[in-house]
Fold:
Amino acid sequence: MWRLSIFLLFYLLKIGYGEYLQTILVQPKSVEVPVGETVLLYCTVFNQYGDVAWCKDGHCTMGRERPLYYIPRYEIIGDKQGGINSLQIRNVNLDDDGIYQCQIGRTKEAREVLSNYANLTILIPPEQISITFVPPGIVITGKEFRINCEVLNTRPAPLFTWQTPPNTQIVNISQVTTPMSNNSKLLRSISTITLLADINQHGQEIKCEATHIALNKSLISTTIIAVDYQPVVKIILKPIQMNENKEYWFECIAEGRPSITELVWKINNTILVRMPPMSDGRYPLYLNATRNMHNQYLSCSALNSAGVSEDVVILNINYSPKFQSFPTPYTIVRLGDSLKLSCTVDSNPPANILWTKNGEFVGGGSQYQIPEVHEDDYAVYACIATLGGQFTKIVASTKVLPPGPPRFYPPQSVLTSRGSEVMLKCQLEKDIEPIDSFWIFKNSTLINNMKHTIIAARDIRTIPRYEVGLIIHDVQTNDFGEYECHVTNQYGTEFVRIHLKKRSSHIFMQLAIYFGILVLLSLILFSMYLCCQQACRVDKKRTTIRRIRRVQTWLQSKPSMWIHNLAAAEKIPLTVYDINSGVTRTTLNPPVDIVECYLSMMNEQKNQHLDRPLLPPPPPPLTIRMPFCNDDDYDYDYDDQSEQIYETADPISWHIDV
Structure:
């Protein structure tokens, strides 16, 4: 009791100092409103001193002034003096959905007051409902299948009801509601019913009904259940024997209810080809056989809405031999020790494996053994795999050597000139890995410096050899001589000598050779130019002869041409054909050979065209064109066989008549 008295005293003291004077009497309440309606959120304050501010989703930006000009649909209504600060929202939409709070600001007289949170839920009714079978959508007798009933763009989620055929066994009914997209307030609601398929369900109707608080009438969707059977598949054509890298024909037949939607040929799980439905139900396959397909499963799989069925054959492919393991290029063995060489080969059928020693047959099988190695056993051994001529044989060889110091390949002298950079190389057999290497020149061991760069022993992967190198920079006279390449392995040290010699200078001889080659090329090009010129002349001459013959033939068919003077009404013969000489001449004084006139005129026209290469050649000035062949064959390019004749005349008072 004494605690309550102390609390009341403390409260009265607070009021006396200006706190707890303003109190929210009417709190805003959560409400659900259909889209397009008007909503009113109440906030009534007793003894209000501060300004009101409405907050939405934590953002308090509404209510500092009345009306809210910057938010047209929002308005704070009520008697401000009476502490009524209700928020009215007209024509609500989904953007208005959120959490609202009324806040009364702090003043000197009173502290701030916050209302309860009120949820404004905008009701969005669903527009449509859809019912679908859950993929793969297969209804098979004795197996479960699922059907989805889906409603989109709604808020809140609807309530689903299912109606199934009689005697249908319902396994499960579930409902899942998710946002339409990230940060979306619209919902997607799916109800899933799981049924056990029965043949009696075939052709029966199943119904899904969705009810919503914002709908006066529920939405209904129906579908028909069809019970199908899986395809029946059989591979009816397959080769008896197959060889690699050859193409073979397979064929399978498939049928089902409903019709097959796709057929797939596969090797194990690798798809070879997808095929659409065939009207005759036959599905061929052309297969290029490879060695990797041997003993693999070739399947023909058919798909329809009821399921997948397949028929499988095991491929038996003959393929060429290939080494799976073989001896290294070098084999080191001591005298008296045993030697065991082996190689394994992959082929179908299994290959015959033979062993040779220096080219002579010594045994067969995947292994060759020598219980005790003697001096004459050091040789080159080869493993040969063959399939009796059906495929190319393969060979893997190894050189059997006793342990010992490095074995060098014969070196060659190196030629270079003063001032150049040269690299000396010594190569040794790749039998035992080198441990150390160094170079000696004039009884001095060389080291890495500005003059020499030593390259340690390295493995040349392109050929089975080790290589040691020495680079000599800025070669001078005292650098020429004999170099020793020393290499050490676990069994000892060996060296080889390489001679560095000075290359003779033949600058003038080289220049003479280059000059001779240049002169020879010039002569060849000049000869080609002369040949082309001669060929062009011969071609032009032949063209001219053909033109002359055509003109003469035409003139023989036109024994006379007349020229008219329109002013004087005169008609004068222009040409006369001489039967004895075969020449058509003009009646002008002096007589002119009409063929020569034609050729001269054509050359003149050609020269005019060359002076103006960018313009098309116009007809000769003051001329009248007369065809002796066909006008369509006319071309202004005078390099070809022109088929037009031009005769000069005065276009004002004269014209030519044939």
Summary: The helical segments are 2-16, 507-557, 594-611.
